[in-house]
Amino acid sequence: MKVEHELKLDRTEVSMFRWMCGFSLKEEKKCAELRQLLGLDPVSLVIEKGRLRWFGRVEHKDDADWIKCCTTMEVGGITQRRTL
Prior knowledge:
The chain has one domain (3-61). The protein has helices at residues 3-21, 31-38, 43-59, 66-72. α1 (3-21) packs across α2. The protein is an all-alpha fold. The chain starts with a helix and ends in a 12-residue tail after the last helix. Helix content is 61%, strand content 0%.
């Protein structure tokens, strides 16, 4: 996930926490306090756990499985680097 997407997701998450708890920005509650009050993990952490769970499933598959083959596949040919 790109950093800009993660930051936007975190801002939205804190906004939703405030809405769920009934706090406004004027009350200056920290997002850690709101998370603790609701007992929730950060969304970025939940997404990362899901990706790692999927990766673990792929790693434990047979070597003949098509998904496992895609992770170890080497693509031939010449690649050109982009210049910015």
